[in-house]
Amino acid sequence: MNPATENRGLGWRAIQALTVLVYIFMFAPIMVVVVLSFNDSQFGGFPMTGFSFRWYHKLMENQAVLSAFQTSVWVALITAVVCSVLGIMAALALVRYDFPGKEWVNTILVAPALVPETVLGVGLLLLMRWAHQPRTLWLLVLGHIMLALPYVVLVVQARLIGIKRVYEEAAMSLGANRFQTFREITLPLLMPAIVASLLLVFTISFDNITASMFWRPSGVETMPTQILSMLKISISPEINALGTLMIVVTVGLPVLGGGLARYLARSGR
Amino acid sequence: MSDSTLTAADRRRPWLLLGPTLITLFVLMILPIAIMTVFSFYEFVTAGVEKEVYTSANWREFFTDSFYHMFLWKTVRVAAITAILCAAMGYPPAYFIAMSHTKHKWLLLLLLIVPFWISFTIRTFSWIHILGEQGVVNVLLLKTGLISEPLRMLYTEGAVIMGMIHFLLPYMILNVYVSIEGIDRNLISAARTLGCTAWQAFYEVVLPLSLPGLMAGLLLCFVLAAGSYVTPEILGSTRDALFGNIIFDTIMGQLNWPMGATLSLVLLVMLGAVAAIYSRYMGLSRIFKGLGA
Questions:
Q1: Which of A105, B2, B96, B247 ranks highest by number of CB atoms within 10 Å?
Q2: For B38-75, b where at least 16 C-beta lie within 10 A, e where not — what string?
């Protein structure tokens, strides 16, 4: 151990305390939502009057919420598949090939993550208006694909760099063509990154609100926009239950996916 | 593979792989921004109707109407306060995670990623339960008798800033952490052996070497805060609207497309300028690293 960093006095303890406080700051509000979702009271806030599942039951009968959930799941699923295919192809090109203009391509690929979502939202609406096209659910899907692309490219790129080229070269020198090499060697090795990217895109799409407020067809709600419009009416306890369910879905999925990715990584070796 | 053995097909292959993605981004991002520029010179007739004649009226309105200047300034101010507070709150945990010998480092790092999985909308509205009249803070203060009437904290600018810090902190901590983690520990030992106090070693060695991460975090927090409009929508009153809310109202409320296009371009150019100044001194590659973390 390092002697210089071992000499830790009051300052270090203060930093430790600050760290704990910051983590409390980050998670306490979310815990409050979870706790309040089991509150028996008919108001969305404190005090707690008893433990009950009634808001979850009520949620299951709320048609608006159920259809918003369906919309969000479908949009997120299609976005995840299409965006991952596009992103993997792009990442392959960036990692496995050298070509002129690579720097530019890199910048363009990451740009959607740096341009404010409000601007991207307005831009796509103007495109539809310019082309005299109506706003449909496909606009939402296309928009989400654009928003998630940079993240897929970054995740898959990072994994591809770790896969040694010699495996692919060995397969090719043994007579496999490019497609066979990709299917038999690269794809299995890439599986963990593909699972990770599918999950990432799913959560990005499922969670998106800023741009979706611009893109959704009139009368169609996604899960987050539905919550926003419920919030505008009142802070009902149903929202707490809904929030808790969404936390279970969006935190549970990556945890499951992480396990799956680790399993695939082990069996792929 | 050396260049001499490259066939035409080999040279075409990366572009075939990149093609779909580049076309997607061209149609969905670059073309719309070009159309936005054209629309900003159209004439607004009435809600939802514009004439395709070229006029500078929208830009004149933006440059002369103090309404827009006020909101633009307010947005810059709120985003700057948010970014600086994020830095102040994010630096100590980042330093702690990087420097501590605890076995639970992975858990601390994992907990920084978890917020990215939890719905942004839910994280934002959770503050209503903390700051509202029936919120944790008011209930506790009333119970202990420190106040006799609930404090008005929700639907204020403070609440908006609080909500934005809450969602931006992980970005800041991760960026600072990555740069502190990369510092050669021998430099700190050397400073200490040469007579620096712990504070001096931090101030003279760690802080300057972690500046790139800190600056990347500040830029990300500033840009994301200045572009947001859902947080003021949930935690602010109408007076706490930011530039994003003005754009949303102009387009979705008044259906004034030309003015909406103008204001969007203003936001894009302003944040682009900030990013350009940053990359002039720091290089943008750091930001990509931060996004990938």
A1: B247
A2: ebbbbebeeeeebeeeeeeebbebbeeeeebeebbebb
